[in-house]
Structures
1.
Amino acid sequence: MARTMWDSTVGKKTVMAVSGLIMLLYLVAHMIGNLKIYFGAGEFNHYAHWLRTVGEPFMHYEWTLWLIRIVLVVAVVAHATSAYQLSRRDIKARPSKYVHARPRSSYATRTMRWGGVILGLFIVWHLLDLTTGTVHSGGFQEGHPYQNVVDTFSTWYGDVVYIVAMLALGLHIRHGFWSAAQTLGVGSRARDRALKTVANVLALLLTAGFIAVPVGVMTGVVS
Amino acid sequence: MKLTLRVWRQKNAGAEGAMSTYEVDGISSDMSFLEMLDVLNERLILAGEDPVAFDHDCREGICGACSLVINGDAHGPERTTTCQLHMRSFQDGDTIDIEPWRASAFPVIKDLVVDRSAFDRIIQAGGYVTAPTGSAPEAHATPVPKADADFAFEHAECIGCGACVAACPNGAAMLFTSAKVNHLNVLPQGAPERETRVLDMVAQMDAEGFGGCTLTGECATACPKGIPLVSITGMNKEWLRAARKVGKR
């Protein structure tokens, strides 16, 4: 069965859809968690610490967090690998362009590939900036995420990179969520409008929710 | 009408092709697009030149032989086949670009003619029923719910012209394959091969070098028979169901 899935374009697209939905689920939780920054350093840092103690005493310190991280890494790798392989195949299947070219499909649809690459690069920067602190501006303090976030969004490039990536994320989800539904065979004529609406609402809420953090720092509401 | 045509000319499969420009005059707006090309070809023959090769057969919009990407659109600006497209859809003095279907699974044979036998091999992989049907059976012998009959007929309308592949930015044959799978999988006559049909046809589609679906919707927009995009969703559902069932065996 695993072989059948990975060898088929339809199966590989299913891998993309499922891994995409896992990441989407995570992003919803991540976005809600981020908004706690508006309730002050105490609550935000407490929430960050709680993430490490979830499931105790059954789970050891940080076990749950690492479990989530592993699932996410697997999802990112599966998503990117299937996207890369399918894209290679798609480009090969249409080697010569039409002389009379015209823009095909919506902006969100056309930017899925490059949008995905931008998001992949963003994730690397984001982890190096706020998880490991390797490229953090101003001294990175382990266990003080509130201050670290304020540091990042106090630089112009931190704001630009983040906001551009979140706009790319919104576009990616707009086409991706609806497409995942089609790939998994749950779309239908009757459900089409509802699925498109959910995709747009999710894209809008996630983009707005994530961008609210740098906007908070830029306007001085969060400092 | 006086028109400027820019037509893809290619001597044979191995030759380099290019767009050639032709002027045609005295075109009636009541002519079909293919009749307009016939006028061009008559002149080319009289002038001792090689006529433009293009596929056509019934010229009634039901056989699926005609193709042509006209001004970047498969079958041109109207939602119909090229043979049913009329010159009234164009203006006097227009420049019209005419190109063949573009996909690596549809190699150009000559000028505007492409080899679509990849579609035949997809059909051979499962686009049939193994039950002997003989002559038309008595209509009440096998009851088919009205909704299923309508669904099957909607998909049976596919004439296999390949416009979906030509329009798809990935050169994918998902809409064609899904039309065949949905048509036969919903009917009781097609039930015995329900799983193998979708698995084999999708496998053949991949083997032919067609691309994958990115849900751009271009195929359904180009389809002269109005096969809907949601057909692909239906095929994905059938494929996942079949992969699960066969995996358990």
Note: Chain A has a mean pLDDT of 95.
2.
Amino acid sequence: MSRSTLLAWQVGVAAALLAIWHIGSSVSIFGIYFMPKFFFSTPADVLGRVWKMFATGIVWKHLWITLTETALAFVIGSVTGAGVGFWFARKPKLAAIFDPFLKAANSLPRVVLAPIFMLWFGLGIWSKVALGVTLVFFIVFFNVYQGLRETSPVVLANARMLGMNDRQLMRHVYWPSTLTWVFSSLHASVGFALVGAVVGEYLGAAAGLGYLIHEAEGVFDVTGVFAGMIVLALFVIAIDWAVTSIENRLLVWRPQPHQQS
Amino acid sequence: MPHPPATADPAVSLARVTVAFGAGAARYVAVEAADLSVAPGEFVAIVGPTGCGKSTLLNVVAGLLKPARGRACVQGADVSGVMAPCGYLFQQDALMPWKTARDNVAVALEPKGVARAEAISRAQAWLTKVGLAAFGDRYPHQLSGGQRKRISLAQMLIRDPRILLMDEPFGPLDAQTRALMGDLLLDLWSADRKAVLFVTHDLEEAIALADRVVVMSAGPAARIVAQHTIDLPRPREINEIRLDPKFHTIQRAIWNDLREEVLKTYQAQAGGAA
């Protein structure tokens, strides 16, 4: 399929979905709206609301808060995850001792931690960051831990034969290898950082996209909920695009940048 | 490059070296009482059936493996840890995939304390020597198997090791590329004679390259069963020397020793499968 045909189909599907939504919510069939406005709003209303959010500028503050939380959760989670993963990969005994605890912590649905974090860190951004960190940490940790243990023994033996000492091995073999695995989990970890932020905001906050959606829901403002969801989706697409371009630049040496996720 | 003063010490010497893995009932003796000596500047090839411990012996010299008994010396000094005078060319890809070809070669000079700018320019010179001057900015995955081997060769040789250890380095390459790599190796080697210990399962390759071919017996507890001096004239060209009548005489003589060991390996494997 050529690029233009593909695009035409994609636009067509979007138009069809919008048309169904529009007809269902604003055209009565035998006196019945099969997608009542109260529950589904209308595409025109929702798009109008999104436009208004950007035009009046109220959305920027919320976007900024969510972005800050996501970025903090991502950075803190990645650094600690990579650090601990690196440490455990080089100290198998330590890893063996902590293995069951890490598995238990990772199997816990993280949402249940949100109320605890609210208590500990308050309603500000840090409770959301904490939730995001618990999600990001494990993704990066497991990636780096597994990845480092699978560092090619031949590459390592070769570096040793070149006469490298521990510091040089760290710089030329272990460290790049660790970074690779952090980057290969980039998409997943940024996504989870965002999930942590939004879910945290949804459960209790005074600002952020999750808060906007929750607030609209609280007053049965379905248009507001849909508008919030669309803004959130646009936000995620923008972040994902940014991550992909960063990844393509950093992993230029890899055969297929999208092989692992 | 300045040569170290000539000494009476052999480049490599193994005395009654035995290598074993595991302990108790699971103890597996890979190599039994191997005696071998490589003179400075001598090219020695080790051939033997699959799994006979050829690579094991090489790893002992490199300091990657400790022998259970016996003594391994490099330039008269006991092997302990990774030996500085040795360069090692692995069978598998051993380049750092996150570095460009040039950086992979240049990084080999870092342990010697060479400044980065100088290392880069010397690496470029070595890329030219192995015929890849224009490929310095490529990453390993963007190079063919033969090109990666050339980069590995440059990475090993830029450190100017006195002893080259090669573990079936051209094994994964196709026949034409192997012959070309062999010629390149002989070319570089004859310019600055280093001692070479070259492991291969390919008898023709061994004869075409080496001054001396060492035959190992079938494992376990493999021994060195025969040594043949290859008195073919140098410089040699792999595809030419193969047609030399003398080459065939030598090949037949060595094959007589080797055949028995290869058959033993097959029978042992067949017995194990039955």
Note: The mean pLDDT of chain B is 87.
